[in-house]
What we know:
- The structure holds two protein chains of two kinds.
- Chain A has helices at 3-15, 24-34, 40-52, 60-82, 88-98, 102-130, 134-149, 154-172.
- Helices cover 78% and strands 0% of the residues of chain A.
- The longest helix of chain A is centred in the last third of the chain and has 29 residues, at 102-130.
- By secondary structure, chain A is mainly alpha-helical.
- Chain B folds into two domains: 2-17 and 30-126, no CATH class; 166-215.
- Chain B is 72% helix and 0% strand.
- Chain B is built from nine helices and no strands.
- Chain B is flat.
- The chains are: A mainly alpha, B mainly alpha.
Amino acid sequence: MNLLVLYLLLLKATLTSVSGLGSLPMVRQDFVVTRHVITDHQLNTAVVAGRTGPGPYGIYLVCVAYAVAGIPGALVGFLATITPAFLVIPLMHWVGAHANKPRVRGAVQALMLASAGLLLFASVPLARDAIVGPLTLVLAAISFVVISFTRAESMWVMFAAAAVGLVARLFVA
Amino acid sequence: MILTRAAKQGCLRLELKLPPDDSTSPQPVLAKPTLSQITWPFFRIGNTTFGGGYITMIVLGRELVDRLKWITRDDFALAFALARVTPGTNIIAFCAAAGMILRGFVGAVSAVVAVTLPSAALAVVLMQSFETWQNRPLVMAALAATVAAVTGAMWSTVWMLTRPHIGKWKQTLRAVVFMAGACGAAWWGVTPVPIIVGALVLGYLWPTPAFEKEAE
């Protein structure tokens, strides 16, 4: 894939989201569904890589770009990930005049809710790829509960899940 | 300074959970740090703090406001609030705003790169490792279990985005309408961009009940 196209597609995904994983539906639509340049499994692996290490969750986009176009792709993905952040600078000027208006705040909240709905929808095929038996179903449910309702860091949840997977594999073998 | 001026105008509802400020006098801010000085805390904290952007922003806030005293509590609060409405990843926008306060545009670039570049490189190494080891059954078993946990983490993100909008019935109804509308439109094959734009327009036309009350 052309690196400029890759950059623009990733930029579109980041510009239309307001959280690290909020870009996931757009990324899946463009790279998995429309262009078939990565699979759901690769997308899942990219999200795992992004969430396992430190730093922003949005870094998974660099892994997606790496899966598409190697190291040059990763560099392009890095640029696409950080570009929207600089919108905060003009926003500082604009916000002074408009951010307190109820309708503007209502629009921002609606954006977040729609992002949540899209993320929920995008999680269905990814879950279909990830949940392949009772063990993975239980792990997904426990992960949701622990991350949502406790202060546990998601990295430890990922490591614990990996350990359970290893033990289960050894036990079955 | 732009941020301080905007903060004084009281133009944002600040949602900040820093430790309480015991002092009643204005917080003193020390001399402007150099570029290399400001890069270090962003590099150190951004690449060693696990748990996502919100936690990293709080830890950075403690460092920049309470320990180093480079920025005021008001500046931090405004950067935090703006980061939440800036497209993309919140923590990266927060770093751009904080870096802008400290050293202008060069400071913003420096802070953003310091926070993201090392963790991006590590993520690529992890991705490559997963790909390389995909034929090893034990590694794949661990990866499959981790991918299942990531699915739970995704649902957790949905919950995190939704939870603040669930309360009184009008507010909850609004949340359900927007979420279900987005899901339904996606199910009917509408791509995300029109859904996002539609949500922005409808959200503008239909403010939340709490906001309507404030406007009165």
